[in-house]
Request: fold
Amino acid sequence: MPLDNASAELAALFAKARTRQLSEMTAVEVREGASKLRSMYGQGPEIGDVHALVLGTGNAAFEARLLVPQVEPKALIVYFHGGGWVTGHIDDFDVLARKLVLRCCCAVLLVNYRLAPEHPFPAAIDDAMTALQWAAREGRELLGASTMLPLIVAGDSAGGNIATVVARKARDQGKPEIAAQVLLYPVTDANFERPSYLDPQLQPLLTGEMMRWYWHHYLPDAAQRQHPDASPLLAKDLRGLPATLLITAEYDPLRDEGETYAARLVAAGVPTAFERYAGQFHGFVSFVNVLPASTVAIEHIGRFVDDRLAD
Reply:
């Protein structure tokens, strides 16, 4: 189906505002442009509390933000934001996180992992593991929870890549236990020859050329992109990964690799809920208070979390 009206209008607005190609810009310039979108999202709902954190040590230190519901949380969601590993900041995702806190009745830890090219692969993965281990070790105490909280990893785009990589690492290490993973149009492979990468009609916002730019900054050595910590679709064994909600967008160069990953999870016996959101472009869930489909997806995530925590 075509883009829905709200998405088509927003895509046209971005196309009109674009004055330079991504390849002509520095990472700093792209970040500055992305930060200007924050005003679109408005205000998030009131929640119980917010804790500003610094995790890691020395040159590997990074910020994080713990958002807490007004009642005792049912779980702790560790959320890794999108942005091609090059852009994105927890401030960009604060409204989304607040809506997840309210709908899921969970605490949300937003992780401001270090960005490429200043901190290329595997810095983001290292930071994500540090955040996950902190959540398992100290999260319950800071939240005042009376029992051990289930951990859920979640992320969108590059953050979905990070989320599923740390879920697999936690499986391999035997800890911490992950109750579920929520993957929103995740990057799972550095293969630029899939049909959704080659069809320009599927790329009204994120394009294949833009993804090549992101990959070049994150991991310039193409051979290293075959590592499963960069391309989780290439991991040999996906058995034993946590129950998964995987959402893709119809208009997205990442659509095919996300759906291939969902199929591999199913084949590996992982309980997997999958849905392609028709008429939506890459990143639609992040456009809270802008795109109606974002509200639908947040409710979808909430139902999935409810079901997993009820088991």
